[in-house]
Write a structure and sequence with these properties.
- The chain is of the alpha+beta class.
- 27% of the residues lie in helices and 25% in strands.
- The chain has six helices and eight strands.
- It has a four-stranded antiparallel β-sheet, with helices on one face. Strands 1-2 form a two-stranded antiparallel sheet. It has a two-stranded antiparallel ribbon with strand order 3-4.
- The longest helix has 12 residues.
Length: 209
């Protein structure tokens, strides 16, 4: 999946000459935590976030008679920007959010702002990809890190005519093994777990006594 498929394109923005009051009003009205700052050509110049405002000591709850809010957005916006492109993979965008500890990633094409994604968008995508929002069950197997190991495992599910919703693979505690997470369209996995164990696979979830 790529960024283009999940990025928000109905963008709310401000010019750098807009007042902080205007930016806060837009953020409150549209329930936004980040607001891109662009010029007339929609080139990205900066971003203003609720954290920027807190760091600058701007009291957004005191909207009236607050001289600070009359300052230009350019005085508080962040300009050291990390950006992505519409063709980036979702996992690459997630890695940027994690590595730089940022809450959103402006998406730029030909220097123009074309979208934005947030940490919430990434989490929602993860839920969709794993299928964890659907009625289902999770089976976790500790497998040796060797080519072709998935084939005999998925064959057991085929034999049981059990539909697999998603498969994830991540490293186990040692380099010679991985942890295979299979989400299946079933609420009772007793029979498939029993069969996997009989085939010699190390099922570590669901736990059984």
């Amino acid at each position: 999946m790529i960024v283009k498929e999940i990025m928000k394109t109905d963008l709310k923005t401000v010019l750098p000459s807009a007042t902080i009051y205007d930016a806060v009003r837009i953020m409150k009205t549209h329930n936004l935590r980040h607001l891109p700052v662009v010029n007339e050509s929609f080139h990205l110049l900066g971003i203003i976030s609720d954290r920027d405002l807190r760091d600058e000591g701007v009291d957004v709850f005191q909207m009236e008679d607050n001289n600070e809010l009359q300052n230009a957005v350019a005085t508080v916006m962040s300009t050291n920007l990390i950006t992505g492109t519409p063709l980036d993979f979702i996992e690459e965008a997630a890695a940027l959010l994690y590595e730089f500890k940022i809450g959103c990633l402006p998406i730029v094409l030909n220097k123009k702002l074309v979208g934005i994604i947030t940490g919430t968008d990434i989490l929602n995508t993860f839920v969709q990809i794993t299928g964890s929002h659907k009625p289902s069950s999770r089976i976790e197997i500790r497998i040796p890190n060797i080519p072709g190991i998935l084939c005999p495992i998925t064959y057991v599910f085929q034999r049981r005519r059990l539909n697999i919703i998603s498969i994830l693979l991540y490293p186990a505690e040692d380099e010679k093994h991985d942890r295979l997470v299979i989400r299946v369209q079933a609420m009772n996995t007793d029979a498939i777990v029993k069969e996997l164990k009989e085939e010699g696979f190390d099922v570590i979830w669901p736990e059984t006594l």
